[in-house]
């Protein structure tokens, strides 16, 4: 049993004894280490002022920009942490810092460290500097002063400056040197923190502690602590579970571990269908996609989560595990009611399977939000249609933001089944959508807006560019 975590901070080894398992990295940096360059703006992973860079030799992407405000300190065990204070060497600014200074990319300066660290992660990963890529990289960093244009100019120029010696990555954490033990908790605190390394260990732990909070990326759980001031007595961190971050592509489809982060899954989902890859580009920000997991989003059961609607439309299936018992179910059956999923105590999401796309089928997903970047959806609609000749043989239309759970529009689907894929029948299905959902009005959209927007998305899908024959003719009848 251990009472100490160990990681590298700005090139130096740090040991922290008896940490509170839900102490955020941001608070530890500022209050314990007086590294105040990392700012607190929102404490919920939105503004990017607290961005740091995490080096993880066992991750798909070595250097990741992360929000320190919702990252719990024990999750950094065995990793490399770099803050704004670690970039300059012997009085010489890092190329990213020089670029921002010389291209006037800072005004009040509060947000500047976060911008530097987001660009620094991109720099260490040898990322491209075209404007679209940079806009994605910086979507999670907010600035009230500059208008962003000088920051983008600086980012495009950051490779033009002489390189300096960089902080090295800590060596890969092997089983015999891993700081946290397998099934014993981090000791020395009234709270319990577990870091299992295998699915079997996780299954045994969760069976023994069904009341525990499962911690994946922390993009929701972090807010429970920072905003709701929740006290989490027992935490099981799945970040080290072998195989949970794996993606296996076969002719049948994609098998995705529950711990796969959005950033790691983006390319695989984009290969499955470009529409899905484009939608994932708009989930949160780079920092959120570097932390948030596919399985965590599903297990959380949010009615406005963006991943469930397209996965339901594609016919995805979940594998749930409780102890030694596994069961497989259609993803759409997992969501029962608001805040309620078909998951027993001690049962967890182990993996997800998404069938390969049938070349003869059509699919698209659309996200409707007030902002393009980093915004919660008012509505998300996903559409899958399979046809024989021009008759619909299968239809799955799934929506988020229209009900208490992500759900299919089964009345609208039925209005198309066995019928010709044409404007008349599609408009009948659009009208039938009103029988499937009675959406609510809230700060993001009114009920009337949601229903009309959902119907318009169906029409957009009908007219979509991915239907070559519709580009040539529109059927009426």
Secondary structure layout plus pairing:
Layout: E1 4-9, E2 12-17, H1 25-32, E3 51-55, E4 63-67, E5 80-82, H2 95-102, H3 112-124, H4 131-137, H5 149-157, E6 192-194, H6 199-208, E7 213-215, H7 221-226, E8 234-237, E9 247-249, E10 253-257, H8 262-272, H9 274-280, H10 286-289, H11 294-300, H12 308-313, E11 317-322, E12 325-330, H13 331-334, E13 335-337, E14 340-341, E15 347-355, E16 362-368, E17 379-388, E18 391-400, E19 407-408, H14 410-414, H15 423-436, H16 447-462, H17 468-472
Parallel strand pairs: 1-5, 6-8, 7-8
Antiparallel strand pairs: 1-2, 3-4, 3-5, 9-10, 10-15, 11-12, 11-15, 13-14, 16-17, 17-18, 18-19
What would you say this structure looks like, in words?
By secondary structure, the chain is α+β, with helices and mostly antiparallel strands. The protein folds into three domains: 4-85 and 180-237, Beta-grasp domain (Ubiquitin-like (UB roll), Roll); 87-160, DNA polymerase, domain 1 (Orthogonal Bundle); 247-472, CO dehydrogenase flavoprotein, C-terminal domain (Enolase-like, domain 1, 2-Layer Sandwich). 29% of the residues lie in helices and 21% in strands. Strands 2-1-5-3-4 form a five-stranded mixed sheet. Helix 2 (95-102) crosses helix 5 (149-157) and helix 15 runs antiparallel to helix 16. The protein is globular. The termini are far apart.
């Amino acid at each position: 049993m251990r009472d100490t975590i160990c990681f590298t901070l700005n090139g130096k080894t740090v040991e922290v004894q008896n940490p509170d398992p839900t102490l955020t990295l941001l608070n530890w940096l500022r209050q314990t280490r007086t590294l105040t360059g990392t700012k607190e703006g929102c404490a919920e992973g939105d503004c990017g002022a607290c961005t740091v860079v995490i080096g993880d030799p066992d991750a798909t992407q070595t250097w990741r920009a992360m929000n320190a405000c919702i990252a719990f300190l024990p999750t950094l065990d065995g990793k490399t942490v770099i803050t704004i204070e670690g970039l300059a060497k012997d009085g010489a600014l890092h190329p990213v810092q020089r670029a921002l200074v010389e291209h006037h990319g800072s005004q009040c300066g509060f947000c500047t460290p976060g911008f530097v660290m987001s660009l620094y992660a991109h720099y260490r990963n040898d990322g491209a500097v075209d404007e679209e890529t940079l806009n994605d990289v910086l979507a999670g960093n907010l600035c009230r002063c500059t208008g962003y244009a000088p920051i983008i100019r600086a980012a495009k120029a950051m490779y033009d400056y002489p390189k300096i010696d960089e902080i090295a990555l800590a060596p890969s954490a092997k089983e015999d040197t891993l700081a946290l033990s397998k099934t014993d908790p981090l000791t020395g605190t009234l709270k319990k923190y577990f870091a299992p390394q295998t699915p079997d260990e996780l299954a045994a732990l969760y069976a023994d502690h069904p009341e525990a909070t499962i911690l994946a990326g922390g993009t929701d759980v972090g807010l429970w602590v920072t905003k709701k001031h929740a006290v989490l007595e027992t935490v099981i961190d799945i970040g080290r579970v072998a195989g949970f971050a794996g993606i296996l592509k076969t002719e049948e489809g994609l098998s995705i571990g529950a711990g796969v982060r959005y950033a790691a899954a983006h390319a695989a989902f984009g290969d499955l269908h470009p529409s899905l890859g484009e939608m994932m580009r708009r989930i949160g920000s780079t920092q959120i996609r570097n932390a948030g997991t596919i399985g965590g989003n599903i297990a959380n059961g949010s009615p406005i989560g963006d991943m469930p609607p397209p996965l339901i439309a594609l016919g995805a299936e979940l594998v749930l595990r409780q102890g030694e018992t596994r069961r497989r179910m259609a993803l759409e059956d997992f969501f029962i009611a608001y805040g309620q999923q078909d998951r027993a105590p001690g049962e967890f999401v182990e993996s997800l399977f998404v069938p390969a796309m049938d070349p003869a089928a059509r699919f698209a997903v659309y996200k409707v939000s007030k902002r393009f970047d980093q915004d919660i959806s008012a509505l998300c609609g996903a559409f899958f249609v399979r046809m024989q000749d021009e008759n619909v043989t299968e239809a799955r239309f799934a929506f988020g933001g229209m009900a208490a759970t992500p759900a299919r529009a089964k009345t609208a689907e039925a209005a198309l089944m066995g019928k010709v894929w044409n404007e008349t029948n599609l408009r009948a299905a659009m009208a039938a959508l009103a029988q499937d959902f009675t959406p609510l009005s809230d700060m993001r959209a009114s009920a009337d807006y949601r229903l009309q927007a959902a119907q318009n998305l169906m029409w957009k899908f009908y007219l979509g560019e991915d239907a070559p024959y519709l580009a040539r003719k529109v059927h009426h009848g």
